[in-house]
Design a protein that fits this description.
Shape: globular
Pfam family, one: DUF4096
Number of domains: 1
Protein name: Insertion element IS402-like domain-containing protein
Organism: Streptomyces hydrogenans
Biased composition (Basic and acidic residues): 123-132
Radius of gyration: 19 Å
Oligomer: single chain
Region (Disordered): 105-133
């Protein structure tokens, strides 16, 4: 398993929601291998043709991503993973708003009134991420893929790039 690949816990969370082959076009390549390839591509921005061989043929990975983006599979996976994590109460649905969504007037920028907090040690930050539930990192990865899929759809529809950035991110990001 390479860096950035689905962990066993993430895979077990995702596997029940994946589509099954209709067997008209033959057997599908292993979903886990292909999804790892898609996640690698989204994370690194590498060209499809430059995907490492461990993910299988690049064209298979590309076609699966294109197909699932077009038919809404990525959106459904994200919703189902969120619903599965919400059922036992693992999601805190507090809303957070950042500056990419809410604009401030140019005069709203001001000087700090108190000194910034002292930075923590690097080890504290690493331990903080180790406490994440498996659905949290899976959710973050699916959000990246859904954002890319929506950007593809917007480009295909001829929408401006600004439409796909903040509005799409605001619609997908949850806890």
């Amino acid at each position: 398993m390479g860096r950035g690949d689905l962990s066993d816990a993430e895979w077990e969370r995702l596997r029940p929601f994946l589509p099954v082959s209709n067997r008209r076009c033959g057997r599908w390549r292993d979903h886990r291998q292909v999804i790892d390839g898609i996640l690698h591509r989204v994370r690194t921005g590498v060209q499809w043709r430059d995907l490492p061989e461990r993910f299988g043929p690049w064209k298979t990975v590309y076609e699966r991503h294109r197909l699932w983006s077009a038919d809404g599979t990525w959106e459904r996976l994200l919703q189902q993973v969120q619903a599965a994590a919400d059922a036992p109460g693992e999601i805190d649905w507090d809303i957070s708003v950042d500056s990419t969504i809410v604009g401030a007037h140019q005069h709203a920028a001001g000087a700090r009134t108190d000194p910034p907090p002292a930075p923590g040690s690097k080890g504290v930050e690493e331990r903080e991420h180790q406490d994440e539930a498996p659905w949290q990192s899976l959710h973050a990865r699916l959000v990246e893929v859904v954002l890319e899929a929506r950007a593809w759809a917007a480009r295909a529809a001829g929408l401006p790039a600004s439409f796909t950035s903040a509005r799409t991110a605001a619609a997908v990001r949850c806890p």
